[in-house]
Amino acid sequence: MNRPELILTPIEMKQADAATIAAGTPGIDLMTRAGRAVADKAAEMTARGGRIVVAAGPGNNGGDGFVAARLLEQQGYRVSLGLVGQRERLTGDSALAAEGWRGEIVAAENLPFQQADLIIDALFGTGLTRGLEGAARIAVERMNMSGRPILSVDLPSGIDGDTGEPLGVAVKAAATITFAARKPCHLLMPGRTFCGPVTVADIGITPETLAATGARIWANSPPLWLHALPRPGTASHKYDRGHTLVASGGATRTGAARLAARAALRIGSGLVTVASPPEALGVNAAHLTAVMLRGCDGPEGLYAILKDMRFNSLVMGPALGVNANTRAMVAVAVNARRSLVLDADALTSFEGIAEELRQVLRHAPTVLTPHGGEFGRLFSGHPDILDPPSKIERARRAALYTGAVVVLKGPDTVIAAPDGRAAVNENGTPYLATAGSGDTLCGIIGGLMAQGVDAFEAASAGAWIHAEAGASFGPGLIAEDLADLLPNVLRGLLT
Ligand SMILES: NC(=O)C1=CN([C@@H]2O[C@H](COP(=O)(O)OP(=O)(O)OC[C@H]3O[C@@H](n4cnc5c(N)ncnc54)[C@H](OP(=O)(O)O)[C@@H]3O)[C@@H](O)[C@H]2O)[C@@H](O)CC1
Ligand SMILES: Nc1ncnc2c1ncn2[C@@H]1O[C@H](COP(=O)(O)OP(=O)(O)O)[C@@H](O)[C@H]1O
Ligand SMILES: [K+]
């Protein structure tokens, strides 16, 4: 099995860079390998003899650009190079790299971008500290206006490597080539949309060196959790595969729970039961087949059901109602110490009183699955959680605060554990933005936890599988489709 793909923050990348240099590889060698990788990628994108325009910045990102310019010229491309800043002010490895460039150096904003077959954006990489102004800003605006394809070095200039946010104007790349490992901005929105396809070049920084930085963000993909996916044994019976309980809303709000329940069953929970308010039993009964049904009158009803210890996983929230009754049911569920997924109304019922949720959550392995709106409501009054510009950091802080695994949903769903692990999802499709899609996700996660999967693995696997199912269907997807797309995704993973 492949290794999980580690994502490095700009600071961690600098550490790995420094460790590699300390272990004996000169910095200029790293820069030369990086520049060669850029030149190879540029050559792949441009016919031999074509015109390549390189915009270089004042730091090491610019140094990579100088190396690439020299190599491409040697290969017979017509290369123009422009610099932001003064040639004499270059220092260290980028000054060395610039010495290798014998051609003219013009001001970057005056480069003939419109005549380029390819533009190489080597203005700023992981060292960007503020929004672009002056010559750098004009250069980026002209690049973008030219309509010519842009290859960004490391990351599109103007994008913050940690957060994926543009700090003002930013390059819209046709492709990006990065080094040793992807950075958060390559996966997070909106950065991902500025990058185009991202290639990772090996420049001789070992996986061990990357890991030694203590990096704890991964791209969410099967190598991260495949080992934890349940496979029934030959002699398994259904109770070995867990029993998921899904709480239903009132008579006119029952569909969400059934979506979650069907997903839990499809993902392999041996049994699934919908716990329904008495007045909704009829409508639920009319729509359930393999999923079972129990009457459940509020917190007392839930308490009674949970005396049966075989219910080992609970899913609560979708269409349950935003009120004290829901809060009381959450408390009962948590005190029963079963695996728990809280979504939608179970989160919004704690709007502005996240502290209360935190108090009850101490008892059980819990996954919270808010979308951005639910997250904002739940943690209103907690600027320490809501304000960090990085979505990964927001999810991590929420996980640390609540002690739960937090799945902060969206096109770049982040799964964060209280111990700092984080995974970023990128395999979805905008067709997943459809009513009930999130209900299905929490059913999948609950169904995995029913089978004994740990909260972080269940949440990560669940988010990936859910996204993969949606992407496999594409246009026309409705939430009802999702559960029935799961077997195909599971088949691809398990056989
Ligand atoms: N790590 C690795 O393994 C390897 C890394 N490599 C490469 O190094 C890159 C990182 O290099 P880096 O640290 O020199 O930063 P970089 O992005 O060039 O920018 C820093 C310069 O820009 C300036 N500056 C910042 N913001 C600005 C603004 N808004 N407007 C104007 N100026 C601004 C800042 O100046 P200051 O903030 O001090 O004013 C400084 O001068 C990395 O992305 C990769 O391409 C490879 O060579 C191989 C190995
Ligand atoms: N543009 C998108 N690209 C990929 N996935 C998306 C996108 N928009 C939403 N999703 C996913 O769809 C699901 C929507 O969940 P949610 O907002 O809770 O919907 P609902 O409340 O209707 O069930 C989440 O898993 C989210 O990650
Ligand atoms: K760049």
From TrEMBL:
SUPFAM superfamilies named in the record: Ribokinase-like (SSF53613), YjeF N-terminal domain-like (SSF64153)
Residues the entry annotates as binding K(+): N61, D121, S157
Domain YjeF C-terminal: 221-493
Keywords: ATP-binding, Isomerase, Lyase, Metal-binding, Multifunctional enzyme, NAD, NADP, Nucleotide-binding, Potassium
Reactions catalysed according to its record: (6S)-NADHX + ADP = AMP + phosphate + NADH + H(+); (6R)-NADHX = (6S)-NADHX; (6S)-NADPHX + ADP = AMP + phosphate + NADPH + H(+); (6R)-NADPHX = (6S)-NADPHX
EC nos: 4.2.1.136, 5.1.99.6
One Pfam family it belongs to: YjeF_N
Keyword Metal-binding: yes
Family of this protein: Belongs to the NnrD/CARKD family. Belongs to the NnrE/AIBP family.
Subunit structure comment from the entry: Homotetramer.
Full protein name: Bifunctional NAD(P)H-hydrate repair enzyme
Protein species of origin: Microvirga terricola
